[in-house]
Design goal:
The complex is a heterodimer. By secondary structure, chain A is of the alpha+beta class. Chain A folds into three domains: about 200 residues, Aldehyde ferredoxin oxidoreductase, N-terminal domain (Aldehyde Ferredoxin Oxidoreductase,  A, domain 1), CATH 3.60.9; about 180 residues, Orthogonal Bundle (Aldehyde Ferredoxin Oxidoreductase Protein, subunit A, domain 2), CATH 1.10.569.10; about 210 residues, Aldehyde Ferredoxin Oxidoreductase Protein, subunit A, domain 3. Chain A is built from 24 helices and 22 strands. A six-stranded mixed β-sheet of chain A has the order 2-1-6-3-4-5. In chain A, strands 8-7-12-9 form a four-stranded mixed β-sheet, sandwiched between helices. In chain A, α10 packs parallel to α12 and α19 crosses α21. Chain B has two domains: about 140 residues, no CATH class; about 35 residues, no CATH class. Chain B is about 30% helix and about 20% strand. Chain B contains five helices and seven strands; from the N terminus they run βαβββββαβααα. A two-stranded antiparallel ribbon of chain B has the order 1-7. The longest helix of chain B is centred in the last third of the chain and has 17 residues. Classes of the chains: A alpha+beta, B alpha+beta. Chains A and B meet through β13, α7 and β16 of A and α1, β2 and β3 of B. β13 of chain A pairs antiparallel with β2 of chain B.
Chain lengths: ~675, ~190
């Protein structure tokens, strides 16, 4: 019997209509766990590196996390993996909700789509019955409507659905895949789904997910729940309210948006508005929010309430579900002081299925180009005078790929180069061609420098980890903080935190030393790699400060669920390092090199080019990668990935004269 | 000397629909607890509590498995509460031919909430324990019982067995079940 996983993948070739249930090799679970880890191995094995992301040869893999569908609270994530049409690198956007557990109950760890359907279709998976069905009646439909129509059509309200909207159908490079209150929205994976003519995937299952060591496992689950309750009553001190609790930032419940609105940038990631938040704004925004939020809601088997049902009373928009920061991204991108606008446009945009980080930035970018005369009335006929109107206008153009929208639909990086006339200079906030959260800071943060520059997720907010983002000014507070910081991986990390000061000898950028900086980065990476393979939500693990799941209890949780013998060393030193270097190798083979490992130019005002180069050198060394950021043959061999090292060597990826004394 | 009145403990789960966040943890822990080896699996299809979830209609309704019934109702009731329209069977606890809920997925045998009876007893039903939103809360109260009722209590186990057999007979035919029983007796 297989534990935690089902032991089967569902392989669907949309070109031929061929459907196969494929038993998986348990050895791969031992090497990579599941979710992201095994998704990555499949992508490496099955998609040639020169493949155009929108070509039928690309795969679109829905991978349930290894622990998704077990009773572990918050283990519910689906990791969607493919090559991105925007970054041209590997994309692995993820979603919570209810999809991954349903996949498991239907009997599948992964649903793997290849090929391209001749007509728009949806796939209906009901335990072992799999049908590819006509979706012409769903063409152009919003994602909320699509879900409702499918539930009616299939006569079951408990079906779980992942679908694309018009943006995905039109292969907008930042189209999302939406599911209930969640979405896998980064890096354009919705466009890949659109390129396959796949409108939706509907799943229903009634099979068991088995646990290897039931008593030990349930005890750990109960401990996690107890700690979640304790943390609700004991928020972390000395950080903004939005970061004091568990879950993703509690944007639907909390009214205090001082941190986001004053610390983050508005417009095309340009302007800080340090004085924006006031009592009047708080009062007005609280009223708007309370009027919009009908109920706080959760993902599968998770007590956190990070999402909400939004029922906006003053307009015709259908109800929708929202989470986290998207209520503010459009408001701040449009430089509009009106939260109501945020709820209105976010609902519309979600129906179309676009990423709520990238879309507002592309629109803000277009407005800047227009104001500076690079885009003209010819490009933007009947362009409204106000920014609210302009955002609605641009959204329509983009999702329909109409006129200038056809260019803007490719994201800031590509659009800037297609438009030319100096538009490239307005591409101010991308990493590896992908728009980032608009945050502009003063002093270089060496830890974030490494994470932003090298992270394979190419997404700032989902690289952050359990370390507070800024030092506490008072030493007593820092000492107090580490007293119950049992989540910290080592004494060295606690020592760092106690010493860490806003200014002076123990401040950024030259503090901490290289070794500690690399350790801090690797710890936070490791936590994310574990979550992305197990399907445990970052909101209970890698993301918040002092979470219930951490490096000391996750090995036991994974072992008890799966029956594998995983301890901290094996989980960190072997499995997650292996997955980390596997992802790097996949991207190396797609052409990623040192020159691409950089943050947005103006992410920090104070930059230190020589020191930053040293940081990268040290980090690459720490990871066992060469000077160009490619994992060495030796490193890959030591991680049981020698076939991958061999492939890189054959392709001449090591042949820059910098490699490789070990090979 | 007058006899002290006997009492029994009535176990009550309060369900506050406004507090439910729709996470289905109640289903998860119920199915895990009632697995033949405790906690050895998760499968909401085996759960004795089911969430009726229609997020866009703001319907979040946990329903507990109650009595088995061999036939569907002749008529149906539709509830409209605070503008939310509940389907005809939403509030019903029956394990009934009209729907999949409250039946073992492989055998089709009916399921019934037993308040997590355990030895030693759990502090509260586990669906309540795992509901950190407090949509489900638990209380016990003492009620006086007469002798007749007490006898009924003792018959509960018997009743449960009968219910299972009746369900099998409904599904496979009484003759069929009787035939199998006869064969089993022979083997003994």
């Amino acid at each position: 019997m297989r534990y935690a996983e089902t032991g089967y993948n569902l392989d669907i070739d949309l070109s031929s209509g061929n459907v196969e249930k494929v038993e998986t090799d348990p050895a791969l679970t031992e090497l990579h766990l599941g979710g992201l880890g095994t998704n990555a191995r499949l992508l490496w094995d099955r998609v040639p590196p020169e493949t155009d992301p929108l070509a039928p040869e690309n795969l679109l893999i829905f991978g349930a996390g290894l622990l998704a569908g077990t009773p572990a609270p918050g283990a519910n994530r689906t990791i969607v993996t493919t090559y991105s049409p925007q970054t041209l690198l590997m994309a692995y956007s993820m979603m919570g909700g209810f999809f991954a557990p349903e996949m498991k109950h239907a009997g599948f760890d992964k649903i793997i789509f290849s090929g391209r359907s001749p007509e728009l279709v949806y796939v209906w998976i009901n335990n072992d019955q799999v049908e590819i069905r006509d979706a012409s009646h769903l063409q152009g439909k919003g994602v909320v409507e699509t879900e409702e129509l499918l539930k009616q059509e299939l006569e079951d309200h408990d079906i779980q659905i992942a679908s694309i909207g018009l943006a995905g159908e039109n292969q907008v490079y930042y189209a999302s895949i939406e599911h209930a209150r969640s979405s896998a929205s980064r890096a354009g994976i919705g466009a890949v789904m659109g390129s396959k003519n796949l409108k939706a995937v509907a799943v229903r299952g009634s099979k068991d997910v088995n646990i290897a060591k039931p008593n030990q496992f349930i005890e750990l689950c109960n401990e996690a729940l107890d700690y979640i309750q304790w943390r609700a009553e004991n928020p972390v001190q000395h950080v903004p309210p939005i970061l004091a609790g568990l879950g993703s930032p509690q944007e639907m419940a909390i009214h205090d948006e001082a941190w986001h609105t004053t610390a983050f940038s508005w417009g095309n990631a340009r302007y800080r508005r340090k004085e924006f938040w006031s009592e009047e704004v708080e009062e007005e925004w609280s009223q708007v929010q309370d009027g919009a939020v009908q109920r706080l809601i959760s993902c599968y088997n998770c007590p956190m309430k990070c999402g909400a049902i939004i029922a906006y009373p003053t307009q015709e928009l259908s109800k929708y579900m929202m989470k986290c920061y998207s209520k503010l991204t459009y408001v701040m991108g449009a430089m509009v002081d009106n939260l109501e606008f945020g709820f209105r446009i976010a609902g519309l945009a979600q129906g179309y299925g676009v990423d709520s980080y990238t879309a507002p930035q592309v629109m803000a970018f277009a407005i800047e180009l227009y104001e500076d005369g690079i885009l003209t009335d010819e490009d933007l006929p009947d362009f409204p005078p106000d920014n609210e109107g302009r955002f609605f206008y641009l959204l329509e153009k983009i999702v329909h790929r109409e006129g200038i929208g056809d260019v803007l639909a490719n994201g800031v990086y590509w659009a800037a180069r297609q438009i030319g006339k100096g538009a490239e200079a307005y591409d101010s906030n991308t990493i590896k061609k992908h728009e980032q959260i608009p945050i502009k800071l003063g002093m270089l943060n060496p830890i974030f420098f490494l994470m932003h520059s090298t992270g394979e997720k190419i997404n700032i907010t989902q690289i952050e980890g359990q370390l507070p983002q800024a030092p506490f000014p008072n030493k007593e507070d820092r000492e107090e903080f580490v007293k119950d910081w049992f989540q910290a991986p080592s004494e060295n990390i606690k020592d760092f935190f106690v010493k860490w000061e806003p200014r002076g000898d123990y401040a950024f950028p030259y503090f901490p030393d290289f070794q500690t900086a690399c350790e801090l980065v690797e710890w936070q990476e490791t936590m994310h790699y574990i979550d992305d393979s197990t399907g445990i939500c970052a909101g209970l693990s890698s993301f918040p400060i002092k979470p219930p799941y951490h490096i000391h209890n996750l090995p036991t949780l994974i072992s008890a669920a799966t029956g594998l013998d995983v301890d901290k060393e094996r989980l960190w030193d072997k499995i997650t390092r292996r997955n980390r270097s596997l992802l790097r190798a996949i991207n190396s083979r797609r052409g990623l090199r040192r020159k691409d490992d950089k943050p947005p130019e103006d992410h920090w005002k104070k930059r230190f080019p020589e020191y930053e180069a040293q940081l990268l050198d040290e980090y690459y060394k720490f990871k066992g990668w060469n000077e160009d950021g490619v994992p060495t043959r030796e490193t890959l061999r030591s991680l049981d990935l020698d076939d991958i090292g061999e492939d890189l060597e054959k392709r001449g990826i090591y042949a820059n004269g910098q490699e490789d004394e070990n090979s | 000397m007058p006899m002290a009145k006997k009492t029994k403990t009535v176990k009550v789960i309060n369900i506050d629909l406004e507090k439910c966040n729709g996470c289905r943890a109640c289903e998860v822990i119920c199915s895990a607890f009632h697995a033949s080896e405790r906690y050895s699996l998760n499968n909401p299809a085996r759960s004795r509590i089911r969430m009726i979830r229609k997020p866009l209609e703001d319907i979040y309704l946990p329903v507990y498995a109650g009595e088995y019934t061999a036939a569907e109702c002749m008529g149906r009731d539709k509830y409209i509460i605070d503008g939310r329209e509940y389907d005809e069977c939403d509030f019903c606890r029956a394990s009934c031919p009209s729907r999949d809920a409250f039946k073992e997925p492989d055998s089709g045998l009916p399921l019934k909430c037993d308040m997590c009876e355990d030895d030693p007893p759990q502090e509260e039903p586990l669906c309540v324990k795992w509901c950190l939103s407090d949509a489900l809360t638990y209380e016990e109260r003492e009620e006086e019982v007469d002798d007749e009722e007490e006898e009924q209590e003792q018959d509960l186990e018997q009743e449960e067995m009968e219910r299972g057999l009746k369900a099998l007979a409904d599904q496979y035919g009484l003759d069929n079940v009787a035939g199998i029983m006869a064969r089993m007796l022979k083997k003994e």
